[in-house]
Specification:
TLDc domain-containing protein; single chain; elongated; alpha+beta; 274 residues; TLDc_dom
């Protein structure tokens, strides 16, 4: 079986896992590409892209370029556009036994990809972005904001320890979020923890441009109110059924975005060791 046929089977398998997706990538939205990317992210390293012809790359890979890791895609572009270019990294050799054992960790998210989740997992373990991941965490969706906010948040997320909140800003590609290692409660009080943090990704397509801000005032790490999830004294606070957002530096090390704004949607995940 040729390498381009391997790629076609990988895409076919990914579409079978997501029957709502069209077979024509030209019709895909950004969320559609993210869905397919999450499904196939563990399969892609086993495809030997550098063994393809230029025509195969153009016809079969370019339509799906948004599901490839940025470094890999740029490397492939240079390889196929410049005959004198020698790629820094060759694709990892494909091992059939390993492919059989692949079990992609799908993330039921309309905001983040597996790459975002992997970096957040490193932050939970207090690792740097370049460190090897120590623990694999499963992101179990507890709540996705809708007409029932904020009551829905408390219904599904209260008394759930170890959660990550992911926020999509309205009219922007920016993603905000926070990690709460303890339980959310429906009461007007602060909860103490030294392990919480908030963060932002400037572009939902990449993890490169990000801000990590760990708690500095542990006594005001988490605020338990009757609105949505709230970190610190308005460092990251979701309030009202119209999903407004406070974002002002107070209880955490640094600000994660420029100003108060409005949220398009948010998701809350329970973090469980895989």
């Amino acid at each position: 079986m040729s390498e381009v046929q391997i790629w076609e089977h990988v895409i076919k398998w990914g579409l079978a896992q997501n029957p709502e997706l069209s077979s024509d990538p030209k019709s895909y939205s950004k969320e559609d590409f993210n869905t397919l990317k999450n499904t196939l992210q563990q399969c892609i390293p086993f495809v030997r892209f550098h063994d393809l012809t230029s025509k195969e790359f153009s016809n079969n890979i370019l339509p799906y370029k948004k599901i490839l890791p940025k470094e890999l895609y740029e490397n492939l572009l240079k390889d196929f556009l410049d005959n004198n270019y020698k790629p820094i990294k060759k694709s990892k050799p494909r091992i059939i036994e390993e492919i059989k054992e692949i079990n992609p960790k799908n993330i039921d998210s309309r905001i983040i990809t597996f790459q975002h989740a992997e970096l957040i997992s490193k932050w939970i373990d207090k690792l740097e972005i370049t460190d090897k991941i120590r623990n694999h965490y499963e992101f179990k969706l507890l709540y996705r904001s809708g007409f029932d906010a904020p009551k829905g948040f408390h219904k599904f997320c209260d008394n759930q320890p170890g959660t990550v909140t992911i926020v999509k800003l309205k009219g922007s590609n920016e993603i905000l979020g926070g990690y709460n290692p303890i339980e959310w409660k429906y009461e007007e009080s602060y909860s103490v923890t030294k392990d919480s943090f908030i963060f932002s990704f400037k572009n939902s397509d990449s993890i490169e441009n990000h801000i990590l801000s760990r708690v500095k005032d542990e006594a005001k790490a988490i605020y338990n109110g009757n609105d949505g999830p709230s970190f610190g004294f308005r460092d990251l606070r979701i309030y009202g059924n119209k999903l407004k957002l406070y974002c002002r530096k107070a209880s955490y090390e640094k600000p994660i975005t420029g100003a108060d704004t409005v949220i398009e949607k948010y998701e809350v995940f329970r973090i469980v060791k895989a």
